[in-house]
Design a protein that fits this description.
eight-stranded antiparallel β-sheet; 41% strand; Multidrug-efflux Transporter 1 Regulator Bmrr, Chain A; 136 residues
Length: 136
C-alpha cells in the first residue's frame, strides 16, 4: 500500500447522521441522509469514524452548501479538521466494502499518523473513495 499526501486547507463544515451501531449501522446512516435530502447527487459526502468516550462512532456526513444548512435539517454539524492527511484510493468502493477497514488498519499502522486520528472517507465520485487519516 502506497499512501499519498493530501492537504485540507480549511476546516470542512458538514452535517451528519450518526450510526446507531458500528459497523452494522453504517449503511442505514447514508440511506437516512439520502431520504432526508431527497438525493446525494451533486453533494460532497464523507464518512467519519472517531473514538469518542472509548468507543468507535461513525457519522455519515454531507458538506454544507451554505452556513447553517445542517440546522435547516435539524442535524448536528461537525468540522472535519484542516491539515495534512495520508490517503489511499479505493476504486469501486461499493463492491469492496470489506476492504475499507483493512485500508484504515494499514493506514493507522503507519509511523507518521497522528495518534487518535479520525478515519475519513471522502467519496469523491459515485465509484471512488479516498480512505484518509491525519498526518502527525
Amino acid at each position: 500500500m502506497a499512501a499519498q499526501e493530501y492537504k485540507i486547507n480549511e476546516d470542512l463544515i458538514v452535517f451528519y447522521i450518526q450510526a446507531e451501531t458500528f459497523p452494522e449501522g453504517i449503511p442505514d446512516t447514508f440511506i437516512k441522509m439520502e431520504n432526508l435530502l431527497g438525493s446525494l447527487k451533486d453533494r460532497h459526502v464523507y464518512g467519519v469514524t472517531a473514538c469518542i468516550d472509548d468507543k468507535l462512532v461513525y457519522r455519515a456526513c454531507v458538506k454544507e452548501n451554505f452556513k447553517g444548512e445542517g440546522d435547516q435539517y435539524r442535524l448536528p454539524t461537525y468540522a472535519i479538521p484542516k491539515g495534512e492527511y495520508l490517503y489511499v484510493t479505493l476504486p469501486n468502493w461499493r463492491e469492496n466494502l470489506a476492504e475499507i477497514p483493512v485500508l484504515f488498519d494499514q493506514l493507522m499502522a503507519l509511523p507518521y499518523v497522528k495518534k487518535q486520528s479520525i478515519c475519513l472517507e471522502d467519496y469523491t465520485s459515485p465509484d471512488k473513495m479516498l480512505a484518509m487519516v491525519q498526518k502527525a
